[in-house]
Amino acid sequence: MAVRIRMKKLGRKHRPFFRICAVDSHAPRDGRVLEELGTYDPMIAETDARAELNHERFSYWLGVGAQMSDKVKVLFRKYGPEGTHAEARDAALAKRSGPRVIPAFGAPAYVPTAEPEPSAEESAAQEPEVATETAAGAENKTAETKTADTENTATAAKEDAATPDAAAEEDKSE
What we know:
By secondary structure, the chain is an alpha+beta fold. It is built from 5 helices and 5 strands; from the N terminus they run E-E-E-E-H-E-H-H-H-H. The chain is about 45% helix and about 20% strand.
């Protein structure tokens, strides 16, 4: 049986994810695997954190004659035990697995300025004078409201009187 180390596609539409697997060379791409050796997630923003490989199992399968696919060969050259990006990958994975640092909020964009409180003398000068109403003033107000009410009723009566004449004129014209 010929063994290949290749990628098995998982994920969904527009969100790929790959497992790097040891597979029988006659098996379909997403078929049965012999062993999973790592993962590759191309959607991770940090380029060096995209691949995770199990170096011991890779060495075993390469020792028994497994062949790597072209894409896996590139990943192994970069992120394998003596890979060109091995140190950067380790640093990126450590950064990714560590606690997430959320920056503190800054000062608010708008802070209303507090108006200074006036002193006792200024507040006394600014207070409006309270008008005290006398009985005569109250009688004047009630008289004014009664006059306004009678004027309103007189105006309404004139309008009512005007409307029947107009209706009568319309009847005569017909």
